[in-house]
């Protein structure tokens, strides 16, 4: 029972006592974004985790992100508010099936989205995030055959944009799949002139209407640079918090699902994290991410390749 405890003050006290850094993804609740030392996209958060001199990383995101932090910073204690914060893309790609798929295509390299398990990273050649995928893909020789997993929408988008055939793993993000083209077009008609920014995890029915397609940090940058004062945002709506902080005079509208509002596009995994659970994680240093050393080193290879090629 946490009643009577000033959770925010306790987080502040424990953050100093533990020499902890709090990292948060843009899809976290506003209160978690506000107290984090750093808020960013998947690539930026990986870089922060690799660089930090804190003793403890408290990772407010989903577990594949916290595992990435542990792979890159093995000597730090990495804790998460809720170990059940998974990802539908990770779930779509069991390591043994991915291994069999790779073995069936020995002449292909595996270019793999960071939204996957540590085991799948260990079975991959190069990891990409949505902000680094285009730069990395352009460095791979044109005659090199590629398996892209687990997000078929990001893979399909890259494949169309660069006119490059890839074997796509059939995974999807349940959040970005939930946007409705019909409702989006209605919203667009109600807001004539407002551009649409979409994450490449969206299906083509959404991405094809977008004026800008990119990662969370890319969408945020687009919001800052666009000429108009209204933007339709087709990604998880919690990112709108950062837009409203940075651009109080502009209007941001979350793209709708089939029910006409954007609440169905809240990531249920990201939403498991709360202030109370973050407090408990800092207090108890649990739940803690641990990765067997052989597996960690195998996964680190493909992640290091990303960090090298993304810069
Ligand atoms: P980025 O923040 O890297 O764009 O990733 C989005 C996402 O869905 C993370 O789960
Ligand atoms: Fe996974 Fe989609 Fe949630 Fe991101 S938004 S963590 S891709 S389910």
From TrEMBL:
PANTHER family attached to this UniProt entry: QUINOLINATE SYNTHASE, CHLOROPLASTIC, QUINOLINATE SYNTHETASE A
UniProt remark on cofactor binding: Binds 1 [4Fe-4S] cluster per subunit.
Residues binding iminosuccinate: 25, 42, 113-115, 130, 199-201, 216
Organism of origin: Novosphingobium album
Keyword line: 4Fe-4S, Cytoplasm, Iron, Iron-sulfur, Metal-binding, Pyridine nucleotide biosynthesis, Transferase
Family: Belongs to the quinolinate synthase family. Type 2 subfamily.
Molecular-function GO terms, alphabetical: transferase activity
Main subcellular location: cytoplasm
Signal peptide as annotated in the record: none
Cofactor(s) it depends on: [4Fe-4S] cluster
InterPro entries: NadA (IPR003473), NadA_sf (IPR036094), Quinolinate_synth_type2 (IPR023066)
List of residues binding [4Fe-4S] cluster: 87, 173, 267
Name recorded for this polypeptide: Quinolinate synthase
Pathways involved: Cofactor biosynthesis; NAD(+) biosynthesis; quinolinate from iminoaspartate: step 1/1
Purpose: Catalyzes the condensation of iminoaspartate with dihydroxyacetone phosphate to form quinolinate.
Compartment(s) where it occurs, according to its Swiss-Prot or TrEMBL record: Cytoplasm
Catalyses which reaction(s): iminosuccinate + dihydroxyacetone phosphate = quinolinate + phosphate + 2 H2O + H(+)
EC numbers, comma separated: 2.5.1.72
Name of encoding gene: nadA
Gene3D superfamilies for the chain: NadA-like
